[in-house]
Every structure is written in C-alpha cells, then in structure tokens.
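Sample entry follows:

_____
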Amino acid sequence: MASPYSRQTVTRMAPIDRAYQLTSPSMALLSNKIARKCNKSIATRALSSSKSDPKQQQSNGTGGEEEMSQEIVLTPGEKVVAGTRLFFWAGAFAFASVCAYYIGKELLPTKMSPNTTFDRATSAIRQNEEVKRRFGEGFKTYGRDHGGHREGRRNFIEHTEYTAEDGTKRTRVRFNLEGQYGSAFVFAEVSNEMASGEFVYILVQDKRNGAVITVQDNRAALLARQLAGGNKEGQDVFANLLGGGKN
C-alpha cells in the first residue's frame, strides 16, 4: 500500500524533470555560442600578434643599428690616437716613395742623371789630347773629395738640376780629376734637348794655376738657337756673331 507522502514526492519531482528537459537544449546552444566567441577572440589575438611581430622586429633591428652606431663613435682620446696613426703611416708611405724614387734613379740612370753625365764626360776628357798632356794619360776621375783615402766616399757626384731660361732641363755636375802631373776640377752640363753624348760644356780647370781647358762648349750655339727661334739661317748668323765671326 503506497504512502501518501510518496505520491507527493513523485508529483513534485515531475515538474523539476520537465524543467530540466526544457532548459537543457538552450544551455547547449548557449555553450556553443560562447565557444564560438572564444574561438573568434583567440583567432583575432593571433592575427594581431602576427601583425605586430614585424614592427617589433623592425624596432629590434633599429635598436641593433643604434647600438652599433654607438659602438663606432670614438672618444676624443681615441680620435687623437687614430689621427696619429694615420699621420704616421702617411709619413712612412711618403718616405718609402721618396727612397724608391732615388734608388730607382740610381739603379736605372737616364742621360740626365749625374752618374751618366759623369761617365760620359770622363770618356770625352780621355779623348782630349791637351788634357792628357797636362795631367798625364793615366789620370782618374772621382766625385766629392772629403780628404780621405776611401774610394766609397768619392762616389757621390756633386750636381745641380734646374730649368734654363729657354725652358730646357739641365743637369750640371762637378767632379775631380787627378793625374801624374797634377789635379783639376771638371765642370760639365747636359740639356734634355741635346743628343746623348753632347754637352752644353765640359771644362777642366787646373787646381794649381786656374787655367781652363775647354773640351766642349756649345753655349753659343744654344743661345743662337734660342735667339733665332728655330730658323737655321738665323742660328748660323747668331753663332758667327757670338763666336767672334768664326765659321
């Protein structure tokens, strides 16, 4: 036999079950909507973060460049050291260039070099009969005499390189001659417009009495050429006048 209390309980529970059955579909729809909204918000955040990454990378890159530029900036003391080093290396390069120029000039002489002028003038003097009679045939020539007996000190030839009034390049040398019967100074000069073996002049001056022996002297011919301006007849006329009327 059923109790009256059990009936009331059953009748009261029935509405609750019905309410739960009615509300459960709506809860499912609500949960689906919430899940969709969450997914959309997550996707939006992911896109925004991916768009902001290049900006962050660019900012990071500019930051690295700023750091590098800050590292390159030198202090005043470092600038002084760098300038001193640059000046030192520039001076060393200039000194090496000058040394290379003079070494090459000595090793590869031209017709205008002092040593070449010395050698050719010595050859011309050895063929001059008056010089051989005055100083002897076995004479020798050498450069600057320092009063010593070492031949190495006599290798330097005193010389002067200059530009003449006519615009030609000239090399003038002076060296010593010593023979059996005495010694002398030798003066010689060459021009860049003259052929090899030709001299502006070669003069031998005796050290004892100052007497001068003229081996070659073309100064009058060069002056006549300058005054005539390239005219052959004018050169001959001026050469005769400057040479005292000699043909």
About this structure: The chain is about 55% helix and 15% strand.
